[in-house]
């Protein structure tokens, strides 16, 4: 893929908050206002924390809908997960190959190892698996959240120093604080551990059966220079990701351990081959 700096891009948008969510609506509008060709393929309902699940045992349906706030854009409502949306759009719905896939803007942050639960980040990972530069974009969500301001930052990022040129492996997780001002810094970070302490609340239904709600609380973060620590400082964090989960150090360690011949005793009554 060859992209010239400042070129108007063909962009596929998705999310995990649903096709009618404010975050994806504002991002699509701002990207389109800046001349980019935007197509939306997003879940027909809330799919938060769906991870990288895909639909195997039910048919997928993509309904082309009209959004009054996005009158000139092609918008698909898909009865699947965020990863489904990306895979289906790239392989069936689009009549072009996108220059970029963006998942978001998510209503709430996606930080640390908890991105493994995130439908938002997983949709971007799916895009990367299919060979396209991909961004996962999230923002701390309150009534004061300005998704359009965050969207303009994404536009500026796309125009910045040929970031997409010859960089099809680009996979970024971007998190915005609730307030963006002149003092807000953009920091390149690594993943932290976790922002929350998970716990289960146990209750009982009217028939005496126990059930559980997953709950959580903020925890003190000790690590510095991570997406979590910069988010807590009110900065914008950009974390480069990769889809190869191989632990290279363990390869070397295990190769040494298994380089010696391992002799196994056959203590069972099964005869060895040839005996």
TrEMBL record:
Residues the entry annotates as binding a divalent metal cation: 16-17, 48, 106
Species of provenance: Halanaerobium polyolivorans
Classification via PANTHER family: 5'-NUCLEOTIDASE SURE (PTHR30457), 5'_3'-NUCLEOTIDASE SURE (PTHR30457:SF12)
Name this polypeptide is given: 5'-nucleotidase SurE
Cofactor binding, per record: Binds 1 divalent metal cation per subunit.
Reactions performed catalytically: a ribonucleoside 5'-phosphate + H2O = a ribonucleoside + phosphate
Swiss-Prot/TrEMBL cofactor(s): a divalent metal cation; Mg(2+)
InterPro entries for this protein: SurE, SurE-like_Pase/nucleotidase, SurE-like_sf
Keywords recorded for this protein, A-Z: Cytoplasm, Hydrolase, Metal-binding, Nucleotide-binding
The keyword Metal-binding belongs to this UniProt entry's keyword annotation: yes
Lineage: Bacteria, Bacillati, Bacillota, Clostridia, Halanaerobiales
SUPFAM superfamilies: SurE-like
EC number: 3.1.3.5
Compartment annotation: Cytoplasm
Reported function: Nucleotidase that shows phosphatase activity on nucleoside 5'-monophosphates.
GO molecular function: 3'-nucleotidase activity; 5'-nucleotidase activity; exopolyphosphatase activity; metal ion binding; nucleotide binding
Domain (Survival protein SurE-like phosphatase/nucleotidase) ranges: 11-196
GO cellular component annotations of the record: cytoplasm
